[in-house]
Amino acid sequence: MTSIIRRVFFSGILAAVGLLALALGSDGASAMPVSCLGSDCTVSDGAASIAYRTSVDPELKTFSINGTDNLSEEEYHLCFDCNTSSKLGVELDNNLTLTSATQDEAANMVTAIFEGSGLKITFDHLLTGGANSGTIDETITIENTQSTALQFVLTELDDFDLNDTSDGDSASFNGDFFTQTDGPVSLFLSSSSFDFFTVGDCCEFNLLTDTLVGGHLGGVTSFGPGDAAFALEYDISLAAGQSAIIRKQKVLFDNDSAPAGFKPKDFSVPEPGVLSLFGFGLIGLGAVRRRRRRGAPQAA
C-alpha cells in the first residue's frame, strides 16, 4: 500500500511540473537572457530605454526618455600603474576583452562581462522606467582571478547631454550624490565607495587630467552651464581570489514629473536588509553567549 501511495505522490509531482512547463510555454523561453555580443544590447521599460554598445568601443551608449537620448557616453578606464596623468586615459577594453553581453527584456537587464589581466568585471544594468523617468541600478562585480594580489585604479566617466544637447548643462556634487540639470530635465547619480571625483567640462581626456591633484581626480564640485561631465575614481586592492562590488544608481526625469518624495539613493548608509541581518547576528551571538554561561561550571 505504501509503494502505491509513493507512486501516486511522485506522479502528481511530475504532472505538476509538466503543467507548469506548458503554462510557461514560449514566455518562459523569452524570459531567458539573449546574447547580444557584436551588436547593441537594448532593453526598455515604461518611457525609458537603454542601449549598450558591444561591437566597437563597448560602453553604455544611450539612456532615453520618451525617445530623447540624454547620454553622450559612459566609459570606464583601467590602469595598473597610475603614477602619471596619462595612465588615466587607458580605456577598459584596452586592458580587458568583452567576453559576454546579454539582454533580458523580461527582467529589463543588460549584462556585460570583461576579462583579462587577471580580472573579471561584470556590469549589470537594471532599468526601471516610469511615464517620464528612468532609473539605472548598476552593479559592478570585480573579481581577481589570478593567484596573486592586484592593485589598480578604475575610473568612470559619465558625459550626459540632457535633452540631447551638449550645451547649457550644470553639474555639481554635494558630498552625497551628483546632480546635472538642463532646463526641465534632471539627472541624479550616486555611487558606493569611490575614492576621488571631479566635475568639469567634457570631454574625456581633458576631464580626467586637467583637475588632477597628486595624480588623482581633484574634487571639483561644480561646473556650468556648458558641456558638463562627471568622473569617479575607484582605487582598488584585491587579494588572490577576492572580489569587490560597486553599486551605482542613475535617475533621470522631467522635473514636472519627479516621483513624489524622491531622494537619490545613499550608498553610504547600509540598506535595511543589511542592518536587519546585522541585528539578527548580534541577537544570535548574545543567545550563544547566554547558553555558554548557563552551561559553564560555577566557581567555588
Structure description:
The chain has 300 residues and is α+β, with helices and mostly antiparallel strands. Helix content is 21%, strand content 44%. The protein has one domain: Distorted Sandwich (Beta-galactosidase, Chain A, domain 5), CATH 2.70.98. The protein is built from four helices and 18 strands. A ten-stranded antiparallel beta sheet has the order 1-7-8-9-10-18-14-13-12-16. It has a four-stranded antiparallel beta sheet with strand order 2-3-4-5, with no helix packed on it. A hairpin with a 2-residue loop joins strand 4 (59-65) and strand 5. The longest helix has 29 residues, at 2-30. It is globular, with a radius of gyration of 24 Å.
